[in-house]
Specification:
With 111 residues, this protein is of the alpha+beta class. The chain has two helices and five strands, in the order βαβββαβ. A hairpin with a 6-residue loop joins strand 3 and strand 4. InterPro entries: N-reg_PII, N-reg_PII-like_a/b, N-reg_PII/ATP_PRibTrfase_C.
């Protein structure tokens, strides 16, 4: 299994999630956040009251999936999340060693 983390512009998150669902990838988590880095879009920086430096607002999308679905999911995110400008975001793919249900502690791995 793999975990996909994608950092996406706020104005693209609805399009990305709709496209993922349309293709059968329904199970995901979304976090709203702020970030700063080398690829920050200077036209989209907002000062933050919580963080005293320039930053970009973003959403982090997390999906755990079977290895065979990684390429398709990443392509959907790339196609629907890009604007063609610096700061469009990043995608990370990591191995998932185990998953357990909190309710009953059963191993919930999908192989």
């Amino acid at each position: 299994m793999k975990e996909i983390k994608a950092f996406i512009r706020p104005n693209k998150i609805k399009e990305v999630i709709s496209s993922l669902r349309r293709e059968g990838h329904c199970c995901l988590t979304v976090f709203e956040g702020e970030g700063t880095g080398d690829y920050t879009d200077p036209e989209k920086e907002w000062p933050s009251l919580k963080l005293p430096f320039l930053h970009s607002k973003m959403f982090k999308l997390e999906i755990v999936c079977e290895n065979s679905k990684v390429e398709a999911i990443c392509e959907i995110i790339r196609q629907n999340g890009k604007t063609g400008k610096s700061g469009d975001g990043l995608i990370y793919v990591s191995d998932v060693q185990d998953t357990f249900k909190i309710r009953d502690t059963k191993n919930d791995n999908v192989k």
